[in-house]
Design goal:
alpha+beta, conserved putative lor/sdh protein from methanococcus maripaludis s2 fold, Elongation Factor Tu (Ef-tu), domain 3, OB fold (Dihydrolipoamide Acetyltransferase, E2P), 4 domains, six-stranded antiparallel beta barrel, five-stranded antiparallel beta sheet, 5 helices, 22 strands, 35% strand, elongated
């Protein structure tokens, strides 16, 4: 009986072991059945741009104006919309001016009253001047009428200045375009309350463009006014040149980055729109460029994988599977980024893939 039970357990255990092995083989077969993703591998490149400074920028109009008013009131009309072309002096916004017109009417009434007082005082002054010359009036009487005449003239001047003030305020209720341009933003609609300093419209000047880019403090000293920059428009792949016109002397409000402005020639403005992204490359003297930048390891930005606040690249394991390697990144150089740690100079990484990659995904090198 004991022998029979022993044989039963041995037989059962053998069956379970065979099934387990068979299951592992099936799982392995299923894993091996997953098609391998075709990939291209590369090694980090050296910084060929050691003799140049690269940055990212944007095309912008040379002159931009935020249109607002100096008086408070309801907006009765906005005569333009986003995308409209406007000419200098064209009416853009009209603001209710009933109260200002009432103030001007009051000033006009005060002017009429003051003018009558001036005319009366002048007659008295002229009469007492004649009497004084004939010694029929005293000096004190002449002084009194002279003071009255001067006071009347001062009151007239004050009333006229009140009207000038009302006219100035009235002019702020009809807002016109300061230059020829394009309306790029319409921030409020008719019926809204306009307040001093509140933008109503944004206008960009026609025809003239520049590129605004930020340069780190470690490189700003290498850039000089008038330096020629190579500009590549990302959306159109067009390449053109521009000259550095402005270099900011402070990074207090730009997070340690110094703003530079690069003028684009009018002959190169065709096909450009404000807001387009630009890769900026400014050649500098290699003798002044840092050795650290020359020895930088660069990988394409497209090869970087970002997850939460971490960055990494995919490498290939000894089993020919994708392996995510976390790296620490440095400065950007156009379409490449510097790898500070996590990847060796001679270590291969996956630069492009024909499918989706993940940890453990089978891969094959093209």
């Amino acid at each position: 009986m004991i022998k029979a039970r022993f044989l039963f357990f041995v037989f059962t255990g053998s069956s379970l072991l065979l099934n387990a092995c068979s299951g592992n083989e099936d799982a392995g077969a299923m894993a091996n059945a997953e098609p391998a993703v075709s990939v291209t591998v590369s090694t980090p490149s050296g910084n060929d741009a050691a003799g140049s400074i690269t940055a990212s920028g944007q095309v912008e109009a040379v002159q931009t104006a935020n249109i607002s008013t100096r008086v408070m009131g309801y907006i009765t009309a906005i005569t333009v919309k986003t995308g409209d072309a406007v000419k200098a002096g064209q009416l853009l916004v009209r603001i209710n001016s009933t109260d200002i017109q009432a103030k001007r009417a009051q000033a006009d009434a005060l002017i009429t009253q003051a003018q009558a007082a001036v005319e009366s005082a002048k007659k008295d002054y002229d009469r007492f001047t004649v009497l004084y010359n004939k010694q029929s009036a005293t000096a004190k009487e002449l002084d009194n009428v002279t003071l009255q005449f001067n006071s009347a003239k001062a009151n007239l001047e004050a009333a006229q200045q009140m009207r000038n003030e009302a006219n100035a305020q009235l002019s702020y209720t009809n807002i016109t375009a300061p230059f020829n341009g394009i309306v790029t933003q319409k921030l409020v609609d008719a019926g809204s309350m306009a307040t001093p300093g509140m933008p109503i419209l944004t206008i960009e000047q026609n025809g003239s463009f520049q590129v605004s880019a930020s340069v780190p403090e470690s490189q700003i000293a290498l850039i000089k006014q008038g330096s020629i920059a190579d500009l590549q428009i990302k959306s159109t792949a067009a390449t053109l040149k521009g000259a550095v016109e402005q270099i900011s002397q402070s990074s207090q409000y730009s997070g340690g980055q110094y703003l530079i402005k690069i003028k684009i020639s009018d002959k190169d403005k065709a096909g450009l729109y404000a807001g387009m992204y630009v890769n900026v490359n400014i050649p500098v003297d290699k003798t002044h460029s840092s050795k650290a930048n020359a020895n930088a390891l660069l990988v394409p930005v497209s090869a970087i994988v970002n997850k939460d606040q971490l960055s990494g690249v995919y490498c290939i394991s000894h089993n020919n599977t994708a392996l995510l390697r976390w790296v620490r990144l440095g400065n950007n150089y156009g379409d490449k980024v510097e790898v500070l740690s996590g990847l060796a100079a001679d270590e291969k990484f996956i630069s492009s893939a024909d499918g989706k990659l993940y940890n453990g995904a089978p891969v094959k090198v093209k």
